[in-house]
Amino acid sequence: MLRLYDNHLSGNGYKPRLLLAHLGRTYERVELDILEGETRTPEFLARNPNGRIPVLELDSGACIAESNAILFYLAEGSRFLPSDPLARALTLQWMFFEQYSHEPCIAVARHWIQHMEMTESQRAQLPDKQEGGRAALAVMEGHLAASDWFGGHAMNIADIALYAYTHVADEGGFDLSDYPHVGDWLDRVREQPGHVPMEPAPEGIVVPAGA
Ligand SMILES: N[C@@H](CCC(=O)N[C@@H](CS)C(=O)NCC(=O)O)C(=O)O
Predict the structure, then answer these.
(1) Distance 35 CA to ligand 1 centre (A)
(2) Is the same domain home to 41 and 65?
(3) Quick check: CB of 66 below 6 Å from ligand 1?
(4) How far is it, in rounded angstroms, from Cα 177 to Cα 47?
(5) Given pLDDT bands bounded at 50, 70 and 90, which one contains residue 151?
(6) Which residue range(s) make up the domain with 20?
């Protein structure tokens, strides 16, 4: 059975959780405490030398790190990843945008504000992170003024990648009412049959960390 190393507060972990729910696949979910260094143990570093969740472990024991690589792997052959080369490239375009221009600002601002005591240096960097996040939301707003989805004519893994941290952007100090097309798109994603919220449901088999 697939095994997902995860943390319940992580938007990067939510991406595979959401896709697995849409695909109707069962998996074991291993909750790791990212604030207590559980992703930096020798056992976990053997699965991802970069010491971060999410990691998807296959039946063969092979491990895939990086949330968007996991989405790409799981979506192959499904309606969540097109087969046309241009449509695939445009899907990847938005997933790379998410990793370079969106997540490092919006997810990081949320993490600093919600999950930890900020250091002086983080407090000083927060306005820049929030400015970068607003710029990313403005790019999304521009795209969504003319299109319903990032992935083409229907929701695909580009939408899942971008949804994960956009729908909780308010927790990083972002006002989503400034981006009405983004708000409508969030509703469209949420209304898709099979949608699950960020908080993982206990339906996956949860095994203890380090198992
Ligand atoms: N680019 C990676 C980022 C993964 C990431 O930052 N994971 C965080 C949780 S959201 C983590 O595991 N942090 C623990 C640590 O750095 O020790 C992805 O998309 O999967």
Answers:
(1) 11
(2) yes
(3) yes
(4) 40
(5) confident
(6) 2-79+195-207
